[in-house]
């Protein structure tokens, strides 16, 4: 039996790129999948690919920053597929490039709103369902700027750092009732988001390092994150709940290092040990 058989997985941003690969991998592992995004045609294509391979999936078009729409979408998933076991927040926006005085403030805030508020809305809706059934796993995707400065991508970075802390808080709130939250950094993947960074004048001006990384051969396959998240969904990395896992990680090595990571309080947003000692 496939290790995710009889599980229901919700994948946001499931219509293309990393999200599509995550949805396909969840289905390969036996899960029934709900692909969520605003663009119906893209998630319908993801569903068609899953069904062609013998899996079961539905496409649910929704605006993640509209809480009522998210609640309606999750109610539909529960009604058509069953209780939600896995939530994977893959959606993301990064269109505000440059120093803050050059960024359109509405674009900057839109990045933050989609990334952070969208994740809040889905978690706020799914977590009570999971708590009621006594189990569940939530995976929130983070990225560049989560643990380091990103001067010309401050909106994206601020939202992703906030999602990391939010994941820690959520996990500490729910883990006692067998609901776990994880953060995953997929690494630098060539997607529609990075193509905008490469092709737009603002991206060329303020984010030339992205082009350099691709030229140097840094291009993580989306399957790396998808396989890691399938492992998380199956419970392999429960010890690391509330912490950061990365698409570039060697999953076997990571499994062996879990206890040491927890003992060192690693893979988390923390003050340095020196600063912590002063508090």
Describe the structure.
The chain is α/β, with parallel strands linked by helices and 279 residues long. It has a single domain, classed as Rossmann fold. It contains eleven helices and seven strands. The protein has helices spanning 17-28, 40-52, 67-80, 105-133, 154-174, 192-199, 201-206, 208-215, 222-233, 251-263, 273-278, and strands spanning 8-12, 32-37, 57-61, 86-89, 136-141, 179-185, 244-246. The chain has a seven-stranded parallel β-sheet, sandwiched between helices. Strand 2, helix 2 and strand 3 (57-61) form a beta-alpha-beta unit. Helix 1 packs across helix 9 and helix 4 runs parallel beside helix 5 (154-174).
Give the termini separation: 50 Å
**CATH C-level category:** Alpha Beta
Cα-based radius of gyration, to the nearest Å: 18 Å
Tell me about the largest β-sheet. Answer: 7 strands, parallel
CATH topology: the name is Rossmann fold
Given helix and strand content, the structural type is alpha/beta
Q: From the 3D coordinates, which CATH architecture would you assign? A: 3-Layer(aba) Sandwich
Q: Indicate the overall shape.
A: globular
Number of helical segments with 4 or more residues:
11
For the residues shown, what is the average pLDDT? 91
**Model regions low in confidence, pLDDT < 50 over at least 5 residues:** none
Q: Order of helices and strands, N to C?
A: EHEHEHEHEHEHHHHEHH
**CATH level-4 homologous superfamily:** NAD(P)-binding Rossmann-like Domain
Protein name: SDR family oxidoreductase
Family: Belongs to the short-chain dehydrogenases/reductases (SDR) family.
Pfam families: adh_short (PF00106)
GO molecular function: oxidoreductase activity, acting on the CH-OH group of donors, NAD or NADP as acceptor
